[in-house]
Amino acid sequence: MDAPHLPTSPGFWRSPLRGPRFTSVLGLVLLVGITVLFVTGLLSYAAYNPGLSPVNDKTPDKGILGFYLFAWPTHPHWLYRLTQGVHVTLGITLIPVLLAKLWSVIPRLFALPPARSLAHALERISLLLLVGGGLFEFVTGVLNVQLDYVFPGSFYPLHFYGAWVFFAAFLAHAVLKTPAAVRNVRRMRGSEPAAVEGELVSPRPAPPTVSRRGALWFVGGGSALLFTTTVGQDFDGLRRTALLAPHGGAVPVSGPNGFQINKTAAYAGIDPAETSAEAWRLVVTGRTGTVRLSRAQLAELPLHSSALPIACVEGWSTSDQWWRGVRLRDLAALVGHEGDPPDLFVESLQRHGAFRRAALRANQVADPRSLLALYVNGEDLSPDHGHPARVIVPAAPGVLNTKWVARLTFGDL
Ligand code: HEM
């Protein structure tokens, strides 16, 4: 007996907006958007060069899910700025579409019987993984970039494994539903004859307050608002418009060092006594032994400049800054790696933090733009930008461009 006061009854869902065409448009947008999110997310993990050293790998138990990994390139120098900027900005922009899609299919989640056949049962299980996985990915992603990651368990494995579960369920769903979705959208355009509306349509709809097209414009408007208040975090000229982004708004300081930072020297626990000209010595170790260099001695070595951005894993980035310093490959040559720069293990003065140590692959060390920077935009690095010296490498995630460098070890990691 149908009980319209219960969500299990189609009569409970009164909105006249629901229907396969409304759902299909949202579904097709998500088909493209989530695929781009998944690919850029996988690239984000690959950019860590996780196979190079345990210090770079926050998801060491990934097993076969790491099958796609490759040596992250240094060209183009803005690569990670692009992929991670797209990942985070698109993720946030898609939130209204995801929520509207979930709202449009919610009657299905309550429909009885739970399973009419084995195929139907499998489809419903994939729907639960799809909805649960999707919400999980978006929630963990947003919490991560909003810097108040309060989720139990480390973000990296949760978001990484969640991505695979979600995308597998998403792929199954897309294979099952895309043909019908394309037909429905064609019908909206009137290029195909009208069909039976199907189970998403309310059998007793409430009077309409807005048209389906109006509702789609509303969702699009929500996405446009999130896009315009997020994308500015990647463009200096627009940064003030990035109202929703933790690293949006005005830059904290002006002048040559006046560009975005993630962790300040104070936050990283850097003791100024350790960074003074008297106290600080860079320790460089390699095939022929160890050398210790003061900042003054480093400044006497051949210096080079590179125009490179800071591209953070949280999705924000700066425009290219002019860094000046000693090439990493020249420092490798100082300790016996003339002409064949090997991998590099970098250690910071930082006492805590997941990225106080990082590993760089030989191709990154060999790139002539990869520097141990002493200056930026014509001025000494400020303490918050890593004074006395920091690593800067093209196309690498910000976390691998170690600040307050104390030790460089060239050779097998
Ligand atoms: C609002 C939505 C999302 C936001 C804000 C977001 C944010 C992020 C951030 C900040 C990272 C880099 C974390 C780091 O390295 O520190 C990341 C990595 C990643 N994201 Fe997302 N994400 C979102 C949605 C998604 C979705 C829907 C998928 C899958 C379909 C996905 C897949 C991944 C993967 C595979 C990684 C690499 C994880 C790792 O480095 O271990 N993300 N995401």
Order of helices and strands: HHHHHHHEEHEEHEEHEEEE
Which oligomeric form is depicted?
single chain
How is the largest sheet built, in terms of strand order? Answer: 2-1-10-5-6
Helical content (DSSP H or I, runs of 4+): 25-40%
Put simply, the count of helices is 10
Poorly predicted runs: none
How many E strands?
A: 10
If you average the pLDDT, what whole number results? 91
Termini Cα gap: 69 Å
Sketch the major β-sheet.
5 strands, mixed
Over the alpha carbons, how many angstroms does the gyration radius reach? 26 Å
Structural class: alpha+beta
The domain tally reads: 2
**Ligand set:** protoporphyrin IX containing FE
Basic shape: elongated
- Beta-strand fraction estimate: 5-15%
Domain Oxidoreductase molybdopterin-binding: 274-410
Protein name: Molybdopterin-dependent oxidoreductase
Organism: Streptomyces cylindrosporus
InterPro entries: OxRdtase_Mopterin-bd_dom, OxRdtase_Mopterin-bd_sf
Overview in brief:
This protein is of the alpha+beta class and 413 residues long. The chain is 38% helix and 12% strand.
Report on the architecture of this protein.
With 413 residues, the chain is an alpha+beta fold. It folds into 2 domains: 10-241, no CATH class; 265-410, Sulfite Oxidase, Chain A, domain 2 (Alpha-Beta Complex), CATH 3.90.420. The protein is built from 10 helices and 10 strands. The chain has helices at 20-46, 79-93, 95-110, 118-145, 155-188, 212-228, 272-275, 295-300, 328-334, 362-366; strands at residues 282-286, 289-293, 304-308, 321-327, 344-348, 357-360, 371-376, 379-380, 390-392, 405-410. Strands 2-1-10-5-6 form a 5-stranded mixed sheet. Strands 3, 4, 7, 8 and 9 form a 5-stranded antiparallel sheet that branches. A hairpin with a 2-residue loop joins strand 1 (282-286) and strand 2 (289-293). The longest helix is centred in the middle third of the chain and has 34 residues, at 155-188. Bound molecules: protoporphyrin IX containing FE.
